[in-house]
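Input chain follows. Return C-alpha cells only.
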Amino acid sequence: MINAQLSDEIIGVFNSVFSVTERTVLSGGAAEPFYEPGHPATIFFREDFERSALHEVAHWCVAGRFRRQLPDYGYWYRAEGRDCSRQAAFYEVETRPQAIELLFCEALNLPFKVSVDNLSVALDDPLVIRFAAAVCAQAAVFRLNGLPQRAAVFRDSLRQRREHAQGNHAT
C-alpha cells in the first residue's frame, strides 16, 4: 500500500522529533534508500513508500554513533543475486531493524511483512519462514524489555499521531 499523505506525516513526525535533537531529517522521493551523514544527516527513503520510510528509520535507530557518521552506516549493499550464505547473513543483520519496523507498523495500524530484499527468494522458503519468526520473536523481546531509545521515542510519537488523527475523526 502506498499512501503519500501517510509518508508525509511520517516525515513530519520524524523531523519534528529528531531534526533538532539528533540533527537528522527524513526525506522521501529517493530512487533508492540511503543514509547521508552531515549537518543535518539525511535518511532518504524510496519514493513515497511509507514502509520504506519506517524501514529506513528502523536502521537509523539501531545504528550507533560511529555508524551514523558513515554514508549508509558503512555497509555495502548487495543487490539481487545473493547466494544462500549471503542471504542468511542478510537475515541475521535484518532481524533487529525489521522487528523495530514491525512495531512502527503496529503504531500506525499498518500491515507488516518481512522484507527479504531478494526477488529470487520464495516467500514460502523455510529460511524466510524462520526469518519471519525471528523478527516476531525479537519484536516480542522489544515489547517486554523496551526498544532502543530513539526507536521508542519515534514509535510513541507515531502512536500519538494516530491517536490524534483518530480523535479528530470522532468529532
